[in-house]
Each structure stands twice: as structure tokens, then as C-alpha cells.
Amino acid sequence: MQKILIAEDDVNILSDLKMRLEKEGFSVDAVYNGLLAEKLIIRNSYNCIILDINMPGKDGLGVCKTIRDQGISTPILILTAFDEVEDKVSGFDSGADDYLTKPFYFQELIARVRALLKRRPLNETSQLISIENLSIDLRTKKVLRKGENIKLTSREFEMLVLLALGKGNIVSKRDFIEHIWGTRVEVNTNTVEVFINSIRNKIDKNYEPKLLHTRPGFGYYLSGKSDES
């Protein structure tokens, strides 16, 4: 049985989500405090983690960052009352894999959870991918740029690998949605843009040559050479 942790400060929402997820066949731990959630995540093994941003003790973004810094790669879904790009970027930078804006329908939450649990496996025929001074280790999930460790969320890592496997070919927003999120979840193309901007900031901002490029109207590609206009 797959195990989920929910951390939400509204006890009514917490109780309802726990009950409904258990009806879907999951084992669920439910807490309303961020510090308690963090302790449980460190001590136990979960298949998916759902974190509200605003919680007593420690907010969801802080919990997310701490567990990622400890090397815990469990998929994380952030619940937020905000829908601004800056808030989404903050969540992704903290290590979240997806976000859901309140209020939401339970059917959407369960679809996103299942998508996180059933992400399509990437082709790992080669364990190491190198592009210029960027290296991606598919076995250890580590990314290095000029020998320096680049911290990516699990979703950012999957998107970067998809780009790398393209070997300089264009990867469209629709390609990302179909291969990373799957067809069961409705994902706005703006979400892809947010992730791409985050990846670009991490792998390109402080390094040369720039590797992540945009072909306006078509998509994105990885290459040491750019034909951007």
C-alpha cells in the first residue's frame, strides 16, 4: 500500500483529505504542524508528500527545502492559497514537484498525486549524459556544471533529462506535459515556462556557454550553440 503524508493547518480540510485518500486505497499520515511533518518525513518512508504552505511551527516551503537538503527525493505537492508566478517559483526552488492552488477539487488533487506516483520512466540506456561542461548522472540523479553540484527538484531533473535526450532537438511544451505530467492531469503551459525558467537559472545563470535555449513558438533545446533570435 502506498503511503502519503499530508501536512495542513486546517483540521477540517486535513481530516477530509485523509478520509478521502484512504478511500482511494492509500495509507495516510496527517499532521497540522510543519515541524512535526518534517520529523515524520525524516524518520519514515513515504511515496508522496502533500504540504500546505502556511502551517504553525514551520511553513511548507521551509519543510520542503530542509528535506531536499537532506537528500530525500520523495515527490512533493505544495498546496497554496496563491497563484502568482513568484509563489510557484519559490515552491519549485524549495524542491517541490508540483503545486495546487486553493480552493481545489479533490479529483484534481488525486489526479496530481497519481501523476507524481506514476511518472513515466525515462530512457536510461546511458547512465551519464554530457553536454559541454554539464553532466547528468541518471543513476545518482546528480547534475554538475563545471564540476559544481546543481540542485534540481525531481521534476526539474526529469525535464532536463528529456531535453538532454533530445540531443539538440526541440522539445515542445506539449512534449513536456505528455512525458513528465502525463495525459491524466491538466497542466497549463505556463507551468512548463515556470519550470524552464527555474532550470535555466540553475544551470546557466552563472556559467558559460549558455545551454538551455528557446525557439519561440516551438519549444526548448539544449546545446552549446544557440540560434535564438
Strand percentage: 15-25%
Number of helices: 8
- Mean pLDDT across the residues is 86
Oligomer: single chain
* Largest β-sheet summary: 5 strands, parallel
What's the end-to-end separation, in Å?
51 Å
Strand order of the largest sheet: 2-1-3-4-5
Radius of gyration: 18 Å
Let me know the number of strands.
11
Low-confidence stretches: 120-125
**What is the N-to-C order of secondary-structure elements (H for helix, E for strand)?**
EHEHEHEHEHEEEEHHHEE
How much helix, percentage-wise, in residues?
Answer: 25-40%
Structural category is alpha/beta
Shape: globular
Question: Can you offer a commentary on this structure?
Answer:
It is a single chain. α3 runs parallel beside α4. The chain has eight helices and eleven strands. Helices cover 40% and strands 21% of the residues. It has 229 residues and is α/β, with parallel strands linked by helices. It has a five-stranded parallel beta sheet, with helices on both faces. A four-stranded antiparallel beta sheet has the order 6-7-8-9, covered by helices on one side.
